[in-house]
Protein 1
Amino acid sequence: MANLSPLHISYSAGSCDGGIATAVSQLLDAQQQSGLFARWLTTEQNSVFTREKDLTDLIDKLQPDLLHCHGLWRAHTRVLASSYNLNRPYLVSPHGMLDPWAISRSPWKKWAAWNLWESKAFHTARCIHALCDEEAEAIKSHVSGVPIAVIPNGVELPAAKREDLPDPVWSKEIPANDKVLLFLGRFHTKKGIEPLITAWQSVSQEAANSGWWLIFVGYGDDGKLESQLTNFPIARCSAYPAVFGTEKKSVLANSSAFILPSFSEGLPMAALEAMSYRLPCLLSKACNLPEATSTSAAISADPEVSKLAKSLQELFQLSSQDRTQMGRNGFKLILDKYNWQNISSKFNRLYAWVQDDSLPAPDFIHF
């Protein structure tokens, strides 16, 4: 196994690729620590006009045993479907991009891309990787006859103590004893931001009475949300630009709860990170973490204004002890199911099978 050399391919290693970049980066680290010779290529640094050829040339130069492609609608899946002879097996991880809500956005462009190259890339894959059973079902509605491996994302556990971190970005605005409900991630329509803000306005007095703030920290809208909340203020609600490294750790460590009322997800890294910091969570069904609600680590928070208002009121009514217990439940869930060591081991087994189909299929593969 240590001699196996997979090559990860995605669009970007930066925030413009959302949670994909974080997931690939952490998976790569875990695989390298396990002794696997894993590498990662991104396509955004290459010219739009030569990306497919550049990517093919790099693959030929690196000579990996297999390819693991992350995300859709980009040059790397066009290469897989092209006439280039790659001479090696590959698998594809859609990362939620075949979910019904995601497909409904720009449907004609995606219909064209699917028929021009994506369908061929999927149907000639040795295996497709789904993050959860719900995503596997979405994939099956588009692809038949290709095995699907169900393996979740993992998350790195926090190492730094709160006192070793800088002050959070909101430290000059929010009193130290008040509580922060954190939204962390991409500012995108699918994340349920609009119904969340409307619901927050409807319970703003209760938020004030119980000492809660709603804080958005993220990227992806060219500063529009931050500008909107500056020019048209909403009580106890602010937005800040994306943070990384120790500043991101500080944001998570200094929050009191986390919310993601998304319309569509694969398996959101931000929610897993929040639970790793022992934060009680408010999550929609589309986050594909039903065990978080069933183990009392999260409150259901679907992206409808009336439902979100009730979810927020439920949060406000929790005692400090209740929130602490929810956080513990979430942290236990991370340790049991979403640690990278176990997940990396599953991928290693999957890669060995993808490369050599005479081996027994792992038990997490659906046919």
Protein 2
Amino acid sequence: TGHALGGLATGFRFLSIRLFKFAIVRDTDGKLRYKKFNIAGTGGQCLMDFGREREPKDIPYFWYNAGGVVMNILSAVVAIIMLRTSDLSMVGETFCMMTAFAAILLGGMNGIPLTLNGLSNDGRNIMLLWRDKKARVFFFRMMQMAGGLSRGERLKDMPAEWFEDVKPRDKDDYFAISNRLNFMTWLEDQGRYSEARAVCEELDGIEKLPQLLCMEKNADHIMLELLTTGRKDVVDRILTKQTMRYLEANKAYSPMKTAALFAVNLLCLNDKAKADTLYEELLAKKNDYLMPGEALMAIEMAERIKLAEKKG
């Protein structure tokens, strides 16, 4: 809620807000809808757009990222004031004490620059964006891409300048790594599978790549490898038990994870019955995913995978 308020106050447009797996989304027709979505390791998320008419230099990144911390602090302050000034019952006192404690704890976890579960928290995002103008450009483009996908657009139909061919410096270059993943997916959406696979292999060369970003990379990498060279040693290296658990855990919310599992079952495990079930699920839920544009990408990937299977 803090991110939403901070974003709306500084010119962002609301896309979605999520608590655990329950999300309120502005759909392609502009109306608010209830959907389910989840990212492993995160408790919530607020996505906002900044439109195509704005330039990266104009983006007011601070209050969008700081809004959550501000809301935590305000919650703690209100709870403490009530404890000090109101004649509360034991239940009321306990509730206010727990609220104050939780708000201070969460405010610290969000505000002190940290990397949690492979993701930068709000404080670290602010620090990275303040230090690096290029990171602000990548952040801005990520917002624009999320807006386009939410409106049902495909990455391949978005402006090419949104997808810069810039290699990350190291594992701490968080926004550059995210940009690289978006660049890879943009190539993939155009059918440039060998080029996209090469980007995945380049990211493999980054020592201690954040775990969540590594899992996101693997979801596409396995499809790209199976659609191009199909090297058994590479497939075995990507398709670990951890990767399979990640795909299974997220397929209900992410169409690209469903497409990846479809590819694995059809081209690798030779489980056509499971593959058919996943394909039907992908088609049946295409209008229910958080980002309809991603669903269109995933369906085309599944069709390419079916053609690959027929060609042997």
